Amino acid sequence: MSKRDSVVCRVILLALLTAAFAPQIVSAQQVYGSIYGTVVDPTGSAVPKVKVTITDQAKATKFEVVTNEAGNYSKDRLIPGTYTVQAEGTGFRTAVSRDIIVNVDKSSRVDFTLEVGQVTEQVEVTAAAPLLQSDRADVATTFTGDQLVNLPALDRNFMAHELLTPGTNALQWQHASSENPQGSVQIMVNGQHFNGTGFQLDGTDNQDPILGIIVINPAIDSITEAKIASQNYDAEFGYAGAGIQIVSTKSGSNALHGSAFEYLRNNSPGFASFARNPFNSAENTQVPPVKWNQFGGSVGGAVIKNKLFYFGDAQLTRRRTGSSVKTSVPTQKARDGDFGEYILAGPINVLYDPTSGDPKTGLGRKPFASNMIPKGMLSQQALNILKFVPASNAPGDPGASFRNNFVATGSEAFDSNQWDTRWDWFVNEKQSMFGRYSNASFNKS
After folding, report:
1. Any idea what the Cα angle at residue 388 is, between residues 385 and 391, rounded to 5°?
2. Given 10, 85, 332, 400, which residue has the most CB atoms within 10 angstroms?
3. What's the predicted TM-score (pTM) here?
4. Hey, where are the domains in the chain?
5. Cα 359 versus chain centre, distance
6. pLDDT tens string 197-248
7. Which of the four pLDDT bands, split at 50, 70 and 90, describes residue 88?
8. 159, 152, 194, 199: which is closest to 173 by C-alpha?
9. CA distances from 136 to 108, 110, 232, 287 (A)
10. In this model, does residue 21 exceed pLDDT 70?
11. Structurally, what CATH architecture does the domain formed by 139-249 represent?
12. Cα separation, 109 vs 137, whole angstroms
């Protein structure tokens, strides 16, 4: 193989790998925010060719733009966070506006009125929060990461905060944990069906196409912002007829930062054993234990200062709650081969002699007399298995004592382990990228 062919093969392999592992293409405003504004002189005239530097205070990454002839500037694709904006123009003092909050899917306006003087002179500009949203028409509520952590939420599920937005109402029924272990909450927005609400996580679709619920339910400690829009949102979210929930995860910074937490609830004094008793006897009537322990933490920092940043979090849940079950077990007569009472419930319960009739098609088989299996034909393996099945302890349904004839109480176990990791790479002013990996495992018994 020639050197040229080798290079071509490598390029093709790289393209295939990129296509295979490339994340879903996302829209800029689903993940990022933006800053825009106008620069004027003391007379109110526009000042063109002013260099505007936008700096992420946590990462020290910088972006530079220049005002146009109308004195306007804008910078989109900004990671949500806190920024400093600086304007420098020839013949004017340098103006600086600090602590500018950039939210996901929002634009922050920062205007400057430059004062005549030397560029080396600096003027601090205090920006007041706008009283009216003018950059877009959507009706939305935004929760910061601090608000999500500090506001009370059952099971530390951030989706509960959606109920604080106008026009929302939780359904009286919710998907069972067997099909919804991640804890998605079915919420109607403005009276619309719950599956009309769309979910976005870091700009990618996060909605189950069948159940209409959230797929990845991120831990509160991993969220930097959550926005719930209920009206007039952008056409790119047109698939969501009721509302759209946009969540952005945290990223690292130059400073090492982290958190740790543990939340514990139980109905017994001290820290009792998590042992379960699935089948209580009639004499054992104590209240089943309730134990709910959720713990974890997060950490973020920089691998390469001002360039490469990481953030990771983990949340583990150990839950034991009281549970009861009402089911059917073989009656004593059935254990002895007498299924006469079963036939009273319908012909579907008729038992046939497998040794009679055509062994291939089953045609011509004869039913057992009185629906009773001779003891000599009972499977010894089946009898051994029945020893592990508890005997009935309830009368059963009227006319069908073999149905719902067993009641037991105990403790239901639910364990979950979820974690996320995110990497942000600032290549240069025009190129930056990030990737996130989320993993969750659940065990219910």
Report:
1. 110
2. 85
3. 0.71
4. 28-125, 139-249, 257-326+410-444
5. 54
6. 889 999 889 998 888 889 999 999 999 999 888 887 877 777 788 888 989 9
7. very high
8. 194
9. 11, 16, 9, 55
10. no
11. Beta Complex (2.170)
12. 15
